[in-house]
UniProtKB/TrEMBL annotation:
Pfam families the UniProt entry points to: Epimerase
Keyword Oxidoreductase among record annotations: yes
Gene3D superfamilies noted in UniProt: NAD(P)-binding Rossmann-like Domain (3.40.50.720)
Protein family: Belongs to the NAD(P)-dependent epimerase/dehydratase family.
Parts forming coiled coils: none
Keyword entries, A-Z: NAD, Oxidoreductase
Example GO molecular function: oxidoreductase activity
InterPro entries named in the record: Epimerase_deHydtase, NAD(P)-bd_dom_sf
Domain NAD-dependent epimerase/dehydratase: 7-164
Matching SUPFAM superfamilies: NAD(P)-binding Rossmann-fold domains
Protein name: 3-beta hydroxysteroid dehydrogenase
UniProt source species: Sulfitobacter alexandrii
């Protein structure tokens, strides 16, 4: 199925860089947007518009004529609440309200494990686990999931919320369970777009890892069947990793380092994420 128009927010980000090309092949027009000045060479059928998610008058016209929005735009770290309020809270409202006003069929949202980050990994939570945010960043994900649920119940605007665990290179022990490969990310987003009916749905963004700490059974109707497995990195990673402190929240809880930092303090600073975004 080929769509007339898709909109991708967060197109200048690392994950957005891997989504642009496959999304451009699914539609006649891909409108990519971000706050950045530009995103490099555009793919066939793609155009770019600079816009601030926190400003409704900049977002509203971009969604005109769109079939679906793939909403990956946000500050992607813990920050003081005041810094996250515009892009991560108000920005989500602006996308949903503009989408509703323009008759958009579905929004695919980059949620996060940090919406449930204070759950224990050993509990093997499902997609129906109650919200337990680990940070203001995670709270924004909870807000947007509830926003999506409300807009489905009250206004029949569909949405799929992808609770991504960690879409980054496997260079630590936590990632052996939490890894989402870029190929599986593309597959996940594709299934969220082309599944005929979704209503309001939540699914974990994680590859087919032997050590995955979450259960996607109740989201199987979306047809997401990941192929990659972080176990291929286990021998090297474990050889370089010291024995874990079993009293450390970063080791025991779903949110990893985000579950340990003080509110408003960077979680990314505690991690070793490689910026390997796709170049155009």
């Amino acid at each position: 199925m080929k769509f007339k128009k898709l909109v991708l927010t967060g197109a200048a980000g690392r994950l957005g860089s891997y989504l642009r090309e496959p999304l451009s092949k699914m539609c006649d027009e891909l409108l990519s947007t971000d706050i950045a000045d530009d995103i490099g060479t555009l793919y066939p059928g793609e155009r770019y518009a600079q816009a601030d998610l926190a400003k409704y008058d900049e977002i509203f016209p971009l969604l005109e004529g769109a079939d679906m929005v793939i909403h990956f735009g946000a500050i992607v770290d813990e920050k003081p609440f005041e810094e996250l309020l515009g892009p991560n809270f108000v920005g989500s409202y602006n996308i949903w309200e503009a989408g509703y006003q323009h008759g958009v069929r579905r929004i695919v949202y980059a949620s996060s494990i940090h919406a449930v980050g204070m759950h224990k990994k050993r509990d093997f939570i499902g997609t129906d686990a109650p919200h337990r945010p680990d940070t203001f960043y995670g709270l924004a994900k909870c807000f947007t999931e509830d926003l999506g649920s409300m807009y489905w119940d009250k206004r029949q605007l569909e949405s799929v919320h992808l609770r991504i665990l960690s879409a980054a290179q496997v260079n630590n022990a936590r990632a052996l369970g939490s890894w989402l490969s870029y190929d599986d990310l593309i597959h996940l987003v594709t299934r969220a777009i082309d599944t005929p009916s979704v209503g309001f749905a939540v699914i974990y963004g994680v590859s087919n890892n032997d050590r995955a700490p979450v259960d996607n059974t109740k989201a199987s109707f979306l047809g997401y069947r990941p192929k990659d497995n972080a176990e291929q990195f286990a021998e090297k990673v474990l050889a370089e990793t010291p024995a874990p402190d079993l009293n450390d929240p970063a080791e025991m809880l779903q949110g990893g380092p985000f579950a340990k930092v003080d509110l408003g303090q960077s979680g990314i600073a505690q991690m070793t994420i490689v910026d390997d975004r796709k170049k155009t």
